[in-house]
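Structure representation:
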Amino acid sequence: PSVVIDSGGRIIVWYLPGALTSMMMVDIHGATHSMSGLLKHSITSGKISQWRTHRSNFYTSPDGMITPSCINISPAWFQQGREVQDGFSLEVSAVLKGAAGHNITASLQRSSIIVSAALQVMHPDLYWAGMETQVRLGKWAARYELNEMHHHLQCWTSIFNVVSIICNRQTPPHRDPKCRLAAFDIMTTAGVYRPVIMDFMNLGIKFLYDSGSILASSCRLVRHYMNVEEGNRIVTAWYMRDSIH
């Protein structure tokens, strides 16, 4: 385990190898399998600029146990391209709608509690800001009788309001502009694959990103990438959507 500290004495990266237990990783696999139908439809073949879901960046599972995909999950957020300034209302993400969505929320609870507890140590102010946002969202959903949203907010155990489930994807160098500027995003990885390196390019630092690892940083500021082309790998990326906070 290690941290990276900037010239002002601030911790800007946390690296926690082996932080996820086998039970947590089983939960993550279970959640992924339960939404396999939706995952199949998350891949696109349009403009290559939409690299996060473009089929050219995904590789097949050697045993068919993982569906190559990238999908976002949130109990309350603005759908893509419909941010608050456009006059749209919050919605439950599509993957959580219906009875199957309740099982997905439940299967993410254990790992999201650990990620939230880690954030309380890493960035206490952000933790409490996230807590306040979740409480306010719950009260808002109850007030307007948004029952499905209220249920998911009650069962959502993460301080973060969005998690991206990313399966068997190669990741080119990038930043994440939808995340909060001064916030930590937390990434976990689970699966069976050869050793892979996460490269934080503008920091000049590389980390071994083995199964069970947790990495936290500001992905809006840190340009990062990793290259893996075989095996089964599920990354969960927890973050706070700037338009919600």
About this structure: The chain has a mean pLDDT of 86. The helical segments are 22-34, 36-40, 99-107, 109-122, 124-143, 147-155. The first helix runs from residue 22 to 34. The first strand starts at residue 2 and ends at 5.
